[in-house]
Known about the structure:
The protein is 33% helix and 20% strand. It contains eleven helices and twelve strands.
Amino acid sequence: HRRGARGRPVACGRRAREGRDIRIENLREDRRNGTSRVCADVVWEDRRQATQELWFESPDEDAGLACDPQAFLCAVAAPALAHGEQRIRVEGAVSPRLRDGIATVLATLVAWSRPTRRAPRVEATGGFVPRRPAEDAGAAVMLSGGLDSLALLRKNRLDFPLGHPRSHATAFFVHGFDLADDPSTCDVYRVAVGNLDAVAEDARLRLIRVGSNLRTLGSRWGQEHQSAAMAAVGHACSDRVRELEIASSYTWETLFPYGSHPILDLHYSGDDLTVRHADLERGRLAKAVLLGDWPAGLAALRVCWEGDPPEGFVNCGVCHKCVLTLLELEAAGCLARCPSFPVREITPELAERLKSVQRTSI
Length: 362
């Protein structure tokens, strides 16, 4: 190193010229034990870190999983920024729209929370090539079973008839985002999938189960990586999906810099897949009211992420998120009809468990 004009160290030599790069290469398909998997190697050229295998998989034969470079690019972009990489080099072709969108996303994340970083540039070995949506592709929704995503699906069903281009034909439930345990041994996952199967049957759409290890790449999940991960799933299944909707967790009045945000989500779109940040105008209480007359939705509601649900339930009923949702359901007049919580009555002691006051929009 040498000293710059202001006394700061300036890197010299071959390593400084090359910079810090990340490569996405060796894209491949695999099938094991009835599960389809698409994989890529993530190579950190200038870090003392082993090559990582990044994968998406599904046990559903009609998931339409493909080795799409755009899926892996979306998954890697925010971690590349977090680790200070200067270039993302992906094997294969990428659409110009996604190239420009990733540049916008990374520049926004830099402005929000990483002012000392420079956004890495994107290179594609196959160049930047426009695409067209698959002829049979339709609209889809990311469906976690939470209040936001269930309300978005319910709103879609009330707004659009079946067969309409904007009507959700597919819902994705992803293992590896908030549920990390082995699906074969995780009781919450088993119950959640069963409940969402009932939702899919009632809403007359196809539920696709997807798993991924992309959270192991390292990034600030909530602040930077959330919608990128969901968009990556959409790109991995773009033969099936033309439009992917992600439910907003906030309203226009309560927005703040976050990993799923209307400024970010649209920019994960490609020429063949449009990503939408949806339902900003509706607060949590209004969403609870919307679910109030939908038994399948109430039965599938899963908001718990820090508690230990009793056997057969997906919510513990006593953590902050559970108690907040119970109060919202009570205010909406539908708590008594919601079987997904082990609690059916609000007591003063339960209400006092709230750790903080959270502003909601009606």
